[in-house]
Amino acid sequence: MEYTILILLLPFLSFLLLGIAGKWFSHRAAGLIGTCCLAVVTILSYMTAYDFFTMPRTAEGVIEAMPPVVNFTWLPFFAEGLKFEMGILLDPISVMMLIVISTVSFMVHIYSFGYMHGERGFQRYYAFLSLFTMSMLGLVVATNIFQMYLFWELVGVSSYLLIGFYYTSPAAIAASKKAFIVTRFADMFFLIGILIYGYYCGTFSFDFAGEARGFAAGGFMLPTALLLMFIGGAGKSAMFPLHIWLPDAMEGPTPVSALIHAATMVVAGVFQIARLFPLWIQYAPDTLHIVAWVGAFTAFYAASVACVQSDIKRVLAFSTISQIAFMMVALGVCTEITTGHEHPGSLGYMASMFHLFTHAMFKALLFLGAGCIIHAVHSNEMSAMGGLRKYMPITHITFLIACLAISGIPPFSGFFSKDEILTACFAYSPAMGWIMTAIAGMTAFYMFRLYYGIFWGTENKQLHAEHTPHEAPLTMTVPLMVLALITIFCGWALNFGSYVSADGRDYQIHLDWSVAGTSIVVAIVAIALATFIYARDKQPVADKLASQFSSLHKWAYHRFYMDEVYQFITHRIIFAHISKPIAWFDRHVVDGFFNFLAWGTNALGFEIRGLQSGSVQKYAFVFLLGALLLLFIMII
Amino acid sequence: MIHLEYILIISAIMMFAGVYGFLTRKSTLAILLSIELMLNSTDINFAAFNRMLYPDGHEGYFFALFSIAISAAESAIAIAIMINIYRMLKDISVGKLEKMKW
Amino acid sequence: MNFLSLFVLIPLLMLLGLWLARGLKGVRTVMVIGSSALLLLAAWLTVTFLSDRAAGLDAEMLYTASFTWFEPLHIKYSVGVDGISVAMLLLSSIIVFTGTFASWQLKPLTKEYFLWFTLLSLGVFGFFISVDMFMMFMFYEIALIPMYLLIGVWGSGKKEYAAMKLTLMLMGGSAFLMCGIFGIFYGAGGQTMNVVDIANHTGGAHPIDFAQQCIWFPLTFIGFGVLGALFPFHTWSPDGHASAPTAVSMLHAGVLMKLGGYGCFRIAMYLMPEATNELGWIFLILTGISVVYGAFSACVQTDLKYINAYSSVSHCGLVLFAILMVNQTAATGAVLQMLSHGLMTALFFALIGMIYGRTHTRDIRELNGLMRIMPFLSVCYVIAGLANLGLPGLSGFVAEMTIFVGSFQNADTFHRVLTIAACTSIVITAVYILRLVGKILYGTCTNEHHLKLTDATWDERLSVICLIVAVAGLGLAPLWVSNMVSGGVAPIIEHIGHGVSSCNPFI
Questions:
Q1: Which domain holds residue B27?
Q2: Do you find a cis peptide bond into C232, omega within 30 degrees of 0?
């Protein structure tokens, strides 16, 4: 399947072309180049998926990872066995990710035609989109951890560039900077993890069955390495406490948020753990449960913050954090790689990947829908909205579908994937199961709060009179409809478990009705509650609750002041108490020492220059005295 | 008969008068005069030693002649410098000549 | 006549040509022809070198030649190159070429400026082709002296102070160095100054006593380390770079600082392996401090050139850090870092010079929103910044990763802790680069005088584009450079061997 290399090359070429020569293209031409490349990439990805999944399975019914299609040494490290390779690895999860990324990216490319219409820097925008797509595709097909890290950095940078796309807005500049630095900070741990891993395992490759120096050789070092890598993943996937960049990243154009900060890049951390899953489960199962608890806390934290935000993109951002945390939890609750019985220990793996897949689709749909709304009312605030269902029917319906999906209402895709996650959680421990069920209920609640706030409720008549909201153009609504269709069908029409599972065997998804029933009931109750509180024009209950628990509301609204904590640490501690003193020390102590040396030499020179007065008479006198002295000595 | 000692005493007096003048006078002209005095005292010594101790040779006389010629040239240059200094500074005392110092 | 000597001859001819040249046009013609000839020569040398190595010529130094220069002290004019010097020559010729175009519009005393500039490059080229310690030292001095005049006459700001400080500190370094070199010479028997001979105990040299090594190693290492911005001898760098004219900053940070790392590796460590193993840890701590300290200092500077100068301290610190790790991967990474830092720092200084030439200020508090006003320069600045913070696909990433992987192969706690500390610099680098980019390029321009400014002219574009192509080339296809360099590094590392220090309290 050598053609897979084109999947990486095409977006790269498109990036180079648009990046270097973009200003000589018209907007339309630039957009078409980018979109056509992506169309080809999408077709190739589907071809790859078809070819890959129709390959014969082994005798045990396992889908095996293909030997890397391409793999060459990009940079040799001269230590034994360590080299930096670049290649393409096809296995179930990477192929699944190819589909997710190319589909969402293609939709976003089309959508951006309408959304970014007439924006300054249109060509640049498409160039960055191509760069991002290339890097993300490169990340998922990486054959070794270092290649993953390389593309990991590249997605970070393309995210930085895209968040800061409106580079004249101070908020966007700050947000892009924050996103990059926070993820970079996490990446440092990732890098250290890679170094430890490389040293003790003697390889960077993902070929875990290969003849390595021995994965167990390092003792506790391998779990340490994996945990450090998880910190890197937590940075990208916005786990608490490294989540602070994601809500701010919403300053970027909305299609970018849909692509990068909802569907693809932010799940890189989940993907990373899934990629290293055989190592986690075999050598660090206890450490894996740390992942589960971090995920559970993040899911709860983000869900509670999402309940009170008023900016619709912020709500979606926190909901993304919460949903990614669900995927993390699902991976974290795995205990062993087994199949065959009712609740296999690695069910979470499949559930996590399944949720990643469905979440990418419906969250992209939500963001693109939000984009249509923002496009129509020119504001992110819920107060500018309300009653939009009359003006924007297509957006309304598709948004509702996505809300139902994320809330876990059958037969939409989210129900199936979330149900598998909850089943895995209950299998791990009932406590975890109930916690996650409760958070799933919160999800339904805040999503419907958002939905009612946008499409029902009080209409902001004054604002809408000035500027009547209208349905978005066709380029924007078609992607919505496509994604909505996928959201409706992919849950039950696609037998996900037979393609992706922890050991590659065919796993038939079956609903555990005790879990599914509970979660449906919880979701419906939550939706009903949201309807009761938010669906009407006046919202007495909501106001009363907000005033009753005003301090809690305030804390949640300010995201529990996490940003302020970071602000304090960076500005007050690092800048004021480390950097400034170091700079002062350098200027005054180190440099001062050398200046003192120079000054000392100079001063000494001034002191002894009196000896060389230049007055010949003095010299002659000294000479004479000397001569007499010598004479005197000689006589004696 | 004039003894060598008498001449040496004269030249020694001239020599130390010159040294004293060189060390104490402030005017460059006076310093130059003192130098001439010292040079002349050595000239006298050269001539006297030649005449009294080695009457057959003439080296002492020649040396004295050379010395006179050189001191003449030297005074010419020195006086030229002094005239220039005087033009620049309106003064030729050594204490004031600090223009080219540090 | 050996063709390597062309690297010295061409600058000599350029000096002659400049002396005879009439008018601005003549000067520019000589410079363009000369620097292009050097660039072509370096490119040709690289190709020839690679093909000869591939053909199986595996002597340590290729294209060697030797002429006696001063018999009593056994000083010879000996030349020869290995993988490291080829890489350095290529780097120098690129910087000289782009530096010429970066100072295209330099106004007062153009001819004299280029005369000194050429003399400086003569010293640099001569240093990298020499294998005789004394010739290296001589060319090193030739490269230092023009710096004083170039900064003192054509500089900006506190230029006399900076020029004096830079020259004095580097001269102080060379005093140490000269003691060191003569120490090595007599310590090895006083028969030859040739580096390879001394290292391999041929040509009349015998091994240097361990006790003597322990004296000469610190002297030589500090001597070269001053130039390589070794903490605490780095303070000439911020002042010097800030005052120097554009092309001089480029050449100085891009090439001259590399002389330090190259010299430490080639003379101090190669010739005194036992002392390296014994005393290397002291310098390793100092360089570790350099790396983190430079990065933290850069965070709070307000002058564009100061930021870059401190970032150079940090990155050059990483070079010395890596060679002191004494293994092939790290040392290869060090040379890659020299290349990468040379290119991207030159790019940075070129851009800063161009921005300063337009706005007449380098204070980041007075600059903002340049992206709208000079898009070309700003985009290039972002690229330079991204290269600096180690974006994959540009050169910084390749070098840093090689260094970190290499350093991590030293399994004891002491080296591990230092490596992890050095890793933090990649975060701090991101902080100061993004702070800078966000402040001066993004946002809206509030200074109305800046609104009328123009974007880069063709000569500036040429210079900047060449550097970007080089940075991206190294970043996208590092394999051949890395292999070439490691071929040069391997015999040295093998020679140094691996010993555990007996006086390191941290092990």
A1: 4-92
A2: yes
Tell me whether residue B99 is in a domain.
no
CA distance B22 to chain A (A): 7
- Looking at residue A586, what is its pLDDT? 83
Give the residue carrying structure tokens 């390092």. Answer: A218
CB nearest A621 (choices: B23, B98, B102): B23
Query: Which stretches of chain B drop beneath a pLDDT of 70?
Result: 100-102
Q: Name the more confident of A345 and C162.
A: C162
Q: How many domains does chain B have?
A: 1
Positions in chain C short of pLDDT 70: 1
Name the residue in chain A with its Cα closest to that of C380: A20
Q: For residue B100, is it within any domain?
A: no
A381 beta partners: A311
Q: Mean pLDDT, chain A, as a whole number?
A: 84
Percent of chain A with pLDDT over 90: 9
Long-range contacts, A504-509 (Cβ 8 Å, 24+): A504/A62, A504/A63, A504/A64, A504/A92, A505/A60, A505/A61, A505/A62, A505/A339, A506/A57, A506/A61, A507/A339, A507/A344, A507/A347, A507/A350, A509/A350, A509/A354, A509/A416, A509/A420
Q: ipTM of this model? A: 0.91
Give the total number of structural domains in chain C: 1
Domain range for C383:
3-497
Tokens of C170: 């580097």
Please name the residues in contact with C424: beta carbons below 8 A apart, sequence gap of 6 or more: A188, C292
Q: Which two tokens stand for residue B75?
A: 């005074």
pLDDT at residue A551 tops 80: no
Domain assignment of residue C507, yes or no? no
The residue type of B58 is H
Contact list in A for residue C392 (CB cut-off 8 A) is 150-151, 153-154
Mean local confidence (pLDDT), A404-421? 85
Q: What is the pLDDT of residues C36-90, one digit of tens each?
A: 999 999 999 999 888 888 888 777 888 888 888 888 888 888 888 888 999 999 9
Q: Residue C20: exposed, middle, or buried by beta-carbon count in 10 A (0-12, 13-18, 19+)?
A: exposed
What's the whole-number mean pLDDT along residues A450-458? 81
- Residue given tokens 């301290």 in the structure block: C313
Determine, for residues A192 and C420 on separate chains, whether the beta-carbon distance falls below 8 Å.
yes
User: Is residue C206 one of the residues assigned to a domain?
Assistant: yes
Is the pLDDT assigned to residue A464 strictly greater than 70?
Answer: no
So what's the pLDDT on residue C91? 92
Domain annotation covers residue B67: yes
Per-residue pLDDT, averaged over A57-71, amounts to 77
**C502 in a structural domain:** no
The confidence score (pLDDT) of residue A607 equals 85
Side chain identity at residue A561, one-letter code: Y
The pLDDT of residue A215? 57
Residue C454's Cβ-count burial label (10 Å; 0-12, 13-18, 19+) is exposed
Residues 6+ apart with CB under 8 A from C193: C73, C74, C75, C76, C132, C133, C134, C135, C185
The Cα–Cα gap between C184 and C85 comes to 22
When scoring A602, A617, A618, A621 by the number of chain B Cβ atoms within 10 A, the one with the most, hence best to mutate, is A617
Q: Which of A395, A424, A487, A407 is CA-nearest to residue A100?
A: A487
When CB atoms are compared, the residue of A164, A191, A595 closest to C404 is A191
A218 confidence band (pLDDT: 50, 70, 90):
low
B31 in contact with A at a CB cutoff of 8 Å?
Answer: yes
The residue type found at B33 is: L
How many CB pairs below 8 A link A and C?
135
C395 belongs to a structural domain: yes
Contact A490, A361 (CB under 8 A): yes
| pTM of the predicted protein model | 0.87
Q: From CA A487, how far away is CA A360, in angstroms rounded?
A: 10
* pLDDT for A633 beyond 90: yes
Q: Is residue B98 part of a domain?
A: no
Instruction: Give the number of residues written for chain A.
Output: 636
